[in-house]
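User: For my dataset I need records formatted as: sequence, then structure tokens, nothing else. Please produce one.
Assistant:
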Amino acid sequence: MGCMDYPSIEAVVEALGGKRVLREEVHTLTELSRLVVAGLPFLSLRQLSAYFPAGERARVEQVVVPRTTMLRREQSGVLSTEESERLERLARITALAEHVLESREAAQDFLTSPHALLDDQVPVELAATDLGARRVESVLWRLEYSLPV
């Protein structure tokens, strides 16, 4: 696992498509941040959404890119900085959920279902904002360290 408040950088990079999609090796938060500011490849969004069951993919993609903008982003091949930030947040909580819950299926279920500790909101939808993602991460870290939730 990475630093106390960030899951494994390798797991996040892999969720975004790794070197194959990002077109370069990424080993640090500084390198990832540079890519996010420049705009992540549209294929990173497709790579991450493919992690989820088919019925959830459209919802996951719409957290990152509004439906009305999707075709333009697909044609340009690059997400805006703001969309890239949302995608990185979603990849981060996805990697963290899989680490904490120890299975892809459990992570998918957690991320796509309303959760009582999040006021019955859906974690992937909360990831649209920084504060929402922090709430999801807080629940996951508390589960990881067996703290009261």
